[in-house]
Amino acid sequence: MPHTLLLAEPRGFCAGVVRAIDALDRLLNQVEEPVYVFHEIVHNRYVVDGFRSRGAVFIDDISEAPDGALVVFSAHGVDPAIIKNAEQRELKVIDATCPLVTKVHLEARKAAKDGYKILLVGHDGHDEVQGTKGEAPDRTSVVDSAQDVLAINEPEAPVFVVTQTTLSVEDTLGTIEAIKGRFPDAEIRNDICYATTNRQQAVKEMAERADLVIVVGSTNSSNSVRLVEVAKSMGVRAQLVDGLTDIDPNWYTDSDIVGLTAGASVPDELLDPIIEDLKIRGVENIEAVVVAEETVEFRLPLELSGNAE
Ligand code: SF4
Questions:
Q1: What would the CATH number be for the domain defined by 4-13+194-290?
Q2: What confidence tens digit (pLDDT) does each residue in 86-103 have?
Q3: What are the C-alpha distances in Å from 89 to residues 59, 71, 137, 257?
Q4: 96: Cβ below 6 Å to ligand 1?
Q5: Does residue 193 have its Cβ closer than 6 Å to ligand 1?
Q6: Residues 247-260: tens digit of each pLDDT
Q7: How far is the CA of 284 from the centre of ligand 1 (A)?
Q8: How many Å lie between the centroid of ligand 1 and the Cα of residue 42?
Q9: Which fold has domain 100-188?
Q10: 98 lines ligand 1 (CB under 6 A)
Q11: All structural domains of the chain with their residue ranges
Q12: pLDDT value of residue 59
C-alpha cells in the first residue's frame, strides 16, 4: 500500500478555465433570464453539473437558443459561422473563449487571408478544433499524427501550421517534424498552451518516481487524457478518474508511491477526498513535485468586467 503521495504542481485550473467559470458564475448571479451555454463551459462533468443545477442550459446546437437569448460561448472557442448566426438572431453573447484559443483563431484567419493552406494539428471533432477550422474550412486540413501528414495531398499554396492548445507536447513535436520533412518551407506555430505544457512536465517528473499516477479529469477533457498518456509513455500505470468514487482500491496494491494530478478544467476540491482517503490508507508522506509557478491571469469578458467593478 502507498506510503508516499506526490502532488503535481501546477495541476488543475488554468487561467482560461478560471475566466470561463467566473464569467458564467457571475452571469448566473446577476441575471434573471435563462443563460444558455454553447458547449460545455469547460470539459469537466462536476463543473458542468454544478452549473446545470444552478439553471444554466447547455446546448450543442446554437438553434436551441431562442432568438434574442443570452448565450455564453465556452472556453474552447467557436466557429465564426456560429458567431454570425448569433448576430443575425440578435443573441446576447458573452464570449468566454480562452484568449489563447482566440490567438490560434487569429493566426488561422490571417494565414487564410494571406493565401496559405492551413494544417491544423489536433483531434478532429474536438470543440476547439471545430472552432479553429471554421476560420477557413476550405483551406484547412486537420492532422492528428505524423501518419496523417503523409496522407495530405500536395497543396498548391504555401503551408501554415497551427495547433490545438491541449495536445501532447511530445507527439506534437513528432507531427511537426513530419510536416517539416514534407513541407520544408512551412510556417509553423506551436500553440500548445503554458498550462498544458506545465501539467505534462509535472506528470513526467512524478512518473519518474511513482508506481501509479492518478489523473483527475473527465474523459472528454483533452488535456486530462494527455496527462494519462504521458505517464503511461514513461512505463507507469495511470488512471483517469472523475473523482474518488471512480478509484478502485486494488490499484494501490504494490504501489508504494502514488502521483496525483488534475487536468486544467478540474477544481482542486475533487482532489481533497482522494488525498484524505490515501491518508487513511497509510500515506504519511506528501510531497509536491513543482515544475513551474503559474501567474497567468485573464480579464473577464468585457461585458462582465464592466459590471464587475
Ligand atoms: Fe486556455 Fe490552455 Fe486553459 Fe485551454 S488549457 S483554457 S488554452 S489556458
A1: 3.40.1010.20
A2: 999 999 999 999 999 999
A3: 16, 11, 23, 55
A4: no
A5: yes
A6: 999 999 999 999 99
A7: 34
A8: 10
A9: Cobalt-precorrin-4 Transmethylase; domain 1 (3.40.1010)
A10: yes
A11: 4-13+194-290, 15-98, 100-188
A12: 98
